Records
---
Amino acid sequence: MPMPMIDMRDAIGVLLAGGQGERLWPLTRDRAKPAVPFGGVYRIIDATLSNCLNSELRRVFILTQYKALSLNRHIRRGWSSLAGFGEYFEVLTPQMRVSQHWYQGTADAVYQNIYSIGNERCKYVFILSGDHIYKMNYRKMLASHVERGADVTVATMEIPLEEASGRFGVIETDSDWRVLGFEEKPALPKPSRNNPQACNGSMGVYVFNTQLLIPILLADAEDPNSSHDFGKDILPRIINKHRIFAHDFVDENRRGAPYWRDVGTLDAYYEANMDLVDVSPVFNLYDQEWPIRTWQQQYPPAKFVFADPGRMGVARDSIVSGGSIISGGSVTRCIVGYNVRVNSYSEVSDSIIYNHVSIGRHSRIRKAIIDRHVTLPEHTEIGFDLEADRRRFHVTDSGIVVVVREESLIEEPESAQ
């Protein structure tokens, strides 16, 4: 069926990027969660912003809050120049125009910026999250919204029941995809009509008619019993009163199974990065039809040093970013950021190395995340004795070792970008 004629200039995006990211600690000690590096040269937020740009959703408010300096700088450098006349990717910090509090929930964050939204001439508002990795054409979602005469549309995808239990909002629909019920993170999710082994999980992507969104937010703000969250409060309140539909996820990644990752935990974040270094990457960064964009600082090309047969700089199944030198050491299944030096006789595997890291000679690193500006001395071993690692570093239950600088006096300096 052909897509109905729509104009993306009728819509604006509100991208929620203000979460504290407690489950990504200590990576969020010095930065906002959406600003956490991803794939060597990107930030997590770049995936959603690229979806906006590729979908021609070119009016986007980005709501930031906690430790937002580096995130604001990244957006200013990499995204503000991409919009043209009447278009923008604009950061909105908490202004407290309608409240004396910081954002109390996802709905409250949008409510506190209700004047900015109301001043725009738009029929539709997309509510987006800044901490998911996926490729989605929002134009297709808006077309579905318009065709069905919906008041609200919720993006969903099939998630195995055991995976969704206690983790995802679950949507119940009829045969026309009209939403009949919604449960926030149920222990026993209701199966999908089409697949008894899976449920329709909410992706945290919504389209609202603007004329409905504003009064709903006003009513929610006045409710003292509300937690001011779209999933917990807004959707359950309006399901029986308005036309709410689900939009089944159409993946632009084109790699078989639909790809959508919530990278809100260290394990999920690590696995999403490792998805990039497969022989045929599960998440495709090299697709010119749906590119992932970012801002990149200028560095010289990566270099691999061959000193003698015993000192060969080698990278296998890895991403190595500009300015990095693999100097007689080896990296295997790694994501290597900018200006990293892996010195002679060192072996690094299954790891994520952030910018400006130096790994000393004769070191062995396995299944680790090394934060920016960390210098590891010679003969360092990480990932081989987890009990010893726990005495020095943060180690997840699955055995991922996270190494950060011992002190942090400032939030992501210019040289860290």
---
Amino acid sequence: MEITFIGQGYNLEQDTSVAEELMQGLNNKQFNCFKCLVAFASPSGVSGLTPHILKSKKHIDTHQVIVGLDNFGTSKEALEELLLWGVNSYVYHSRSHNIFHPKIYLFEGKEDSMVIIGSNNLTEFGLVKNIEGAIMINYTQNEENKVIKDIKNYFENLLDSTDVNLKIITQELIDDLYATEKILPNEEKRKKIHDEKYGNITEKLDKDTSLEKKIFDFFGTTPLQSNPKGFKPKRKLDSIKKIKSIKKERAEQKKIEPYLKKPILHPWAFNNSNIVLIAEIGKGERWKQVNFPIETFKEFFGAKIGDNSYHIKLRHLDQDGNLGEIENRQAVSVKSRNYRFEIGAATSQYPDKDRPIGVFIKIASDKFLYSLLMPKIPQHSNVKAFLLDKYTGPRRNLSRIISDTKSLKKECPTLSFWEMDLLTNQ
């Protein structure tokens, strides 16, 4: 374990900043997961990291960003810039008087992990120019990363997306929040509110001859730290052009998805291009521990052989449209070449005739919505016919295929997955 202090904005000769460390972390191919929880975000802070986020998608499978909306500290333009990242991004807001105020940046990999905890918000000044302090902790292979485990345990309901005050960022949500004028200002209004609250002290006291001005004159100014190489925030015109382009693309996308009745705000919703695993489930005393072929275990679920620390999130949707609790499931691989995950919906006895079928829709690299179809329900025969028609392996094996939601919906239109309104309001 290596602990490092990151100072910024004061001792400019050292030229250290959290922005520099974040860029290095995002470009480090040892990491496959990036998560952050921050109180405030600005378009300049977010856009300074945009190219590094986009580049990191080649090796980072999981991105999760949670931003607060308190005290008008986050602007409409900042959230729209987050949309350009194309990752799982959320806002957190509570009607209580306490505010959402963490500043945590977390990187994880198979061997190495790193966390930065300090006073640095996701703003240009917070990441570079303000006088700030942070601690960076690096863990290497075989070290117990206790601090990271404690963070993930403490903020569990935020990081598994189950907190009721957590909302996934969409353009529709941004527009609704902005329309209220109570929570989300645009960048111009945010700066105006800040100036009115804290004041432009220099301008106010230039014409003042009071004791307050005399005291103020005791203090001088300090130079601002320059942005590190590679941290290039967008300015207003560039951001507006990009946002308009994204809005146009989304409008065109809606035209080719007529079954979407209204905006999807739920983090477990999907579109017609998600990957789907359709699999017969074998018999056994503990048949809820479902075994999968090694290729499915690795390529569909993202697990690694021998790494039983890997977990996925499952959520069951029954045929009445009821969405179950999130199941945090461990990947289990044993020397007997069993590669399995447990499913919570397998609570009844294994049927005497025919096999149950599991339909797993991949929502994200580690998130899967699924339905367990028992032989007695009408949808079972429909899905089985689709499965057997596409399956090309030996008949002595359990039938399993990889498809997509568009094909599945066309052949099996009665599955509860297609009731999108049920997902939107869960």
---
Amino acid sequence: MKYTNKCLVSPNVIARLRFLEELQDGGVNAFLEAISNPGEWFYLRVNVLKAKRDELVNRLRSRLPNLTIEEDPKIPEAIKIHVDGPMEIDEQEKKIDIDKFAAESVIIAAPLFSAGFKGTKSSFKKGDLVSMHHRFSTPWDGTQHDMFCGNCSALYHSDTISSIAKTIIARTVEPWFYVPSFQEWNEFKQGMLVDQAFPSMVATRVLDPQPGDQVLDVCCGAGGKSTHIAQLMQDKGSIISIDRSGQKLDQLARRAERMGITCIEPLQVAAEHMKSHLARSSPSKLFVDPPCSALGLRPKLYVDDTISDLDSFVANQIRILRFALDCVDPGTTCVYSTCTVTYEENEGVIAKVIEKDNMKIVDPGIKIGHPGLETDVLSKAESQKLVRFFPHLDGVEGFFIAKLEKQ
């Protein structure tokens, strides 16, 4: 059986993507086909506080000769591993149902965790080869879908698997695409490298953090960008990493400890309350990566967001960005980024900030990706300073980066 998936989206969401038809080398269909798979390369970031890239690459090549591992020529700390696939695999008679998050993970060889388990369709024993399926209906038309996501080796009997909690319940052994289990490598456990998408690394480079800077990272999540900022600062200076989620901040703390980073201060607080918690701080640089529709992430099997959902993202992005800008002084550099491609969440947000919040778009300092889209508010010269990545054109995740300066 061959992998022939194309990401499913509603007609209303497709309408938000129509601008892609104006780009060269493919439009909406090419984009949807691209985000349905992981792309040709999987990216890791070398922690230069603990390792040199060339030495680490040579070490990995020697230990893992079956992998194609390369140094990325554009980001000095980035390495990339070739993704094999799509494979041809046969569906099995024994089946298990999984949720959407698990489905998008196991197709690239991730193990199946108990949280992603939905139910069994047949009995099986520990060690049996079982097909993983994700069954769902698209809310915009009610159509029922059954996606075959790959085959796994069950770690438990079908009669007991539903009672297992918070652990791996099956190993993916026949995925559509093969991404190595890097989290099991000693180099990862020792903090020498971490997974981070290529455009995300570009965004941190655009911020251009220097040793001694005081950086405010808003909506930091599990700290991919925070730890990148820290290593570019040589762990000298301070980073206040803010997020609403205590769980994500715990992940950030563990990641920073593993990587030997000490300059990050996690702070659990909502955006509207940031300023009162930062009264004694004077950030010299600001990074804002607010929640978005994630229409650039891959692999993505389908999108169930509505137009109302997309509009809510935009309103929240503007709100968070304005709260963050209120925490910094004039002259401060700010980078705004998203992992989505819609105009409204990217150039649309920047246009509103430029028009009403006394901000200026500045040159990103990196010639990479594609320029932004022109708007009624942004001139061609301004849009040329914005950075975009398109999955079907650049082979990476969809992403947007704007470098701003507070006036």
---
Amino acid sequence: MKRVLFLYTELADYTVFALESLSKDAQVFVVHYNVNSDAPFQLNVSEHITSKARNTFTASSLLKWIQDINPDLLICSGWTDRKYITAVRRWNNPQRCVLTMDTVWNGHPRQWLACVISRFTICRWFSKLWVPGELQKKYAQKLGFTTIATGFYCCRHTLFLPLAQKRFINSKKNKKILLYVGRYDAQKGISRLWNAFTDLHHQGAQNWELWCAGTGPVYPLQHPAVKHFGFVQPERLLNFILEADAFILPSTFEPWGVVVHEMACSGLPLILSSAVGAAERFLISEKNGFIFESNAAHSLKQALTKLFKLEPNMLYHMGQKSHELAQQITINQWMNTLKLWMA
């Protein structure tokens, strides 16, 4: 069997799903960071995957482990981890090395500098670059890569796709639920969401509730129509999704956002800020939700107002469109990219 080694950051439920799927066709090895306390996934990595914590290696011992495995393909998350990059550079097998990133091109001077030096650094250490979508692909091209694939992030679609049909046949209740899933962090725009929602609730949108699943440094706003559930493991999250009528992600910084893919799979209309990279694939404004300007409270309120005015049949049709768009990225496509590069 082919051998694939991942030098990864934090594992998540969808990452383990992808690795487990790949392990049916290849030997899979992964080095990873410790679990994030703000996203404490309970991960069950099977014995089919050789998993090791990054902090158990030095750069030299990591290089030795790579040499012992001699992988057919090595996938490295980004280029900022010095330990990973040092080991990749010393291994010196660029044709077998794939760099991944989710950074969106924004024309910042630091990005232009990266484009200048990349020809002498990462383009010499990696021959391929794997990104989530077209916005990241633009940056990859400017860095000088010619072999580029999209679709690097793929949700555990087998868990979420069946929810859509269950949601569609459920009888609609009088109380509508807007769902947020993510960290309680300033970059998620969570405080702006709470303020906008409660303002509109006081102005008459009293048939809607906001359900929030997450944890983090931002203290939860206390309001009768805003409910907080803490971090919710993926299997338990399904119950929240089945109750929800729409999903919102108001981030001020979100290069992609796999949760958007999950909610689209589940058949939910989407309300996304312009900073959410996954909107590129999974949201067509006015067709399956609304997009609003990041950092603009008035724009967020306008999007919420549009949502709150929708009739149940329109929510239903928007959810169907989300479900359709979600199937643009699947685990089969994810694995086919690897198989192509290992051939």
